[in-house]
Specification:
- The chain is of the alpha+beta class.
- It has helices spanning about 5-20, 40-45, 125-130, 145-150, 160-165, 175-185, 195-215; strands at about 25-30, 55-60, 60-65, 70-75, 80-85, 95-100, 105-110, 115-120, 260-265, 265-270.
- A four-stranded antiparallel β-sheet has the order 1-6-7-5. A four-stranded antiparallel β-sheet has the order 2-3-4-8.
- The longest helix is centred in the last third of the chain and has 20 residues, at about 195-215.
- It is globular and about 55 Å long.
- The structure holds a DNA duplex.
Length: about 280
DNA sequence: AACGATCCCTGTTGGC
DNA sequence: TGCCAACAGGGATCGT
């Protein structure tokens, strides 16, 4: 599934393709994909003729600043995939968006479940959008322990739910939240406000290594339907997961069977012995 | 304000 | 074998 690691992998692949390129054509192929723009027609109209000045990321959002002070936003949702192909390349099933550059590349969003979207915002629109509510990026702007502890203070929601809340920290999704909590030795169901400073410190120190290990392996491809690298390869992190999807299998640290529970409406995997 | 539940989507899976 | 309900989940929205 596309979480921070997968989006960052896509960003790194897109940067040399898009940075400095001019968009020569754009088309939204499915109305739902443009739903985040107040005027859906703006997406294609605003893109054509613009130059991409940077390829950035905040949490799970891919952010491409354009000239004319516009911001091109791509979110992969849960089944979105960005492909870089030649314009003659056959259009894959579930292609929701296409754009061409003056360098002869075509950038497409293939997204069967249409949870992803493409938007082009003015600065004012960006400020009104959910982008403005995102917390600090979990990889590039991880807050110091005391600040993170302050954020969690008094919160009664399970720490797993808080890690999934993009306003608390931007980028973690269901897979990496479970992996981080296992590495930190924290029970996903504990209330955020119950964590003491030592817990928060372990939590904070677990985030970067888990994300960086994911990045080294090209992210997590659960199956060939969902996330793939832009060149079509599958990410290899699936085989390195310690808890996610491993119900009843032995904990790789202590051998206790991994359990599955539902937290915040999401499958949550943990070791009942290592995580307290 | 915080929190849990529900909904949006469609390909895949598992039970009968 | 075939059918269909259940499941997966990021984020918006709604009710409490």
């Amino acid at each position: 599934m596309p979480e921070l690691v997968e989006v960052e992998t896509v960003r790194r692949a897109l940067e040399p393709v898009l940075h400095g390129a001019r968009i020569t054509a754009a088309a939204v192929m499915h109305p739902r994909t443009a739903r985040r723009n107040e005027r859906p027609d703006d997406v294609a109209e605003r893109l054509v003729g613009r130059r991409v000045t940077a390829v950035d990321r905040h949490g799970k959002f891919l952010l491409c600043p354009l000239d004319e002070d516009l911001l091109w936003v791509i979110h992969l949702g849960m089944s979105g995939r960005v492909t870089v192909v030649s314009p003659e390349s056959p259009v894959e099933r579930h292609t929701r968006f296409r754009s061409a550059t003056d360098r002869g590349d075509e950038i497409r969003l293939v997204d069967p479940r249409t949870f992803g979207f493409v938007a082009v915002f003015t600065p004012e629109e960006a400020k009104r959008s959910s982008l403005a509510k995102l917390g600090p990026d979990a990889l590039t702007a991880l807050p110091p322990t005391r600040l993170l502890a302050r954020t969690l203070e008094g919160r009664r929601a399970p720490i797993k739910a808080l890690l999934l809340d993009q306003r608390v920290l931007a980028g973690l999704g269901n897979i990496y939240a479970d992996e981080v909590l296992h590495r930190a030795g924290i029970d996903p169901l504990r209330a955020g406000g119950d964590l003491d400073v030592a817990d928060v410190e372990r939590l904070r120190r677990s985030i970067r290594p888990v994300l960086e290990e994911g990045l080294r392996h090209g992210g997590t491809s659960l199956d060939d339907l969902a996330y793939l690298l832009p060149d079509g390869r599958a990410g290899e992190f699936l085989t390195r997961l310690r808890v996610y999807g491993r119900e009843d299998q032995p904990c790789l640290r202590c051998g206790t069977p991994i359990i599955r529970r539902v937290v915040a409406g999401r499958s949550t995997y943990s070791c009942p012995s290592c995580q307290r």
